[in-house]
Amino acid sequence: MPKPIFNKTNIFIALQYLSARKKQSFLATLGVMLGVTTFIVMINFMTGVNDFLDDAVFNGSPDIIVKSTQKTHSRKQSFDTRINSLENAKKIQAFLGKKENVQSIAQQIISPAILVSDVQQLPGSINGVFPAEEDQMVDLQRRLIEGKGFQSLNNENTILLGVSLAKRLQVSVGDELKMILPNGKNMQLKVSGIFSFGITTIDNVRTYFSAKTLQKLLDQENAITAIHIKLKDRDNVDLKTAISQNFKETNVEDWKDSNKTIVIGNKVRDILTWSVSFALLLVAGFGIYNILNITVIQKRKDIAVLKTIGYSSRDVVFIFLVQSLIIGLIGAFFGVVLGYVLSYMISITPLDTSDFIIVDTYPINFKAIYYVLGFSFGLLTTIFAGYFPSKKASKVDPVTIIRGI
């Protein structure tokens, strides 16, 4: 019956070989640690950036927008209602209510307007919303910088402003400004809240106002310009086709169409991040292979002696695999720890984006799966890197080596 390879003697020999070459063992361990650390930091940072952009752009906007291709005009003014009537909007809502993937539905009426503060006058648009519906669509509460959220729009003379727009108008919560509509009507408004989605292109133009009040001011009490839809599964946008087929005079746009640049950018960043990260682990693996290969060459005489006294090829493979496993475990463990420490330091580092992206510190993702992946790949890399030298060592002919002693 062959002797089991997993025994104290084999492990003792492996530890002796490991400690005999402290410098080489340290360099191999350092290579694994730096590879795992870099992998974790890069993954945390790049996915953190992607998650931040997704949260700011996609979660702050609908997944599908339904508009009308027909244009009708009020007899009193030329405002474009886009969706013909509330009856049509009700039919669309009834249709959407039967779809399982629909999470929430919100109607909007959007009108161009001029906003006038005490020091500034800016052209823009007014987003008329129904507070209860929009509150289900957008989690505005956690984006508020100051003031109140959608509930404040129950007062017809209040408005919510994006932080960049508020800065341009030089107003804050409690200040007043005038809204002038295309039909010449105007209204004095009070700023009830200021919010930030973190993206200047949104915060520079986004406003929220009472849809019912805006309909009255425009003399179109049944006007709805768009229906916004939030999906449970954002990646499944098949509902877009169903809406287009059932309601011919509609223009349906999903989040992928509206944010093609960001979607492509996310894919490119993901590919680059994973490619570079795994390349670093492979480089570390080749470094470990070279160190263990040199160890094999330097231990040829010892291996020959071991084989002459009865050690099998399996024993030799096991001895060198134990060395690589110990290097991998220690290097991967400290790599995970250092990766977390560096990621945390980056996450608290102030970030000045010159108002393009409103964020105080660098966005970092601390998902546990990335630490598990980093540890696992670091360990597997060292095992594979140690296997080939150990396989080579097991094939050494002891007679040939002993003759050369």
* Number of discrete helical segments: 14
Question: Overall 3D geometry?
Answer: elongated
Order of helices and strands: HHEHEEHEEHEEHEHEHEHHHHHH
Please, what is the oligomeric state?
single chain
Strand order of the largest sheet: 2-3-8-5-7-6
Written account of the structure:
With 405 residues, the chain is of the alpha+beta class. It has 14 helices and ten strands. Strands 2-3-8-5-7-6 form a six-stranded mixed barrel, surrounded by four helices. Helix 2 runs antiparallel to helix 10, helix 2 packs across helix 12 and helix 2 runs antiparallel to helix 13.
Keywords:
single chain, about 400 residues, alpha+beta, six-stranded mixed β-barrel, about 55% helix, about 15% strand
In short:
This protein is an alpha+beta fold and 405 residues long. It has helices at residues 8-20, 22-58, 86-97, 131-137, 163-169, 200-203, 211-217, 239-246, 255-258, 260-298, 300-308, 313-347, 368-394, 398-403, and strands at 64-68, 102-116, 121-129, 144-147, 158-162, 176-180, 186-195, 207-210, 226-231, 250-254.
What's the layout of helices and strands?
Blueprint: H1 8-20, H2 22-58, E1 64-68, H3 86-97, E2 102-116, E3 121-129, H4 131-137, E4 144-147, E5 158-162, H5 163-169, E6 176-180, E7 186-195, H6 200-203, E8 207-210, H7 211-217, E9 226-231, H8 239-246, E10 250-254, H9 255-258, H10 260-298, H11 300-308, H12 313-347, H13 368-394, H14 398-403
Parallel strand pairs: 3-8, 5-7
Antiparallel strand pairs: 1-9, 1-10, 2-3, 2-6, 2-9, 4-7, 5-8, 6-7
Helix pairs in contact: 1-12, 2-10, 2-12, 2-13, 10-13, 12-13
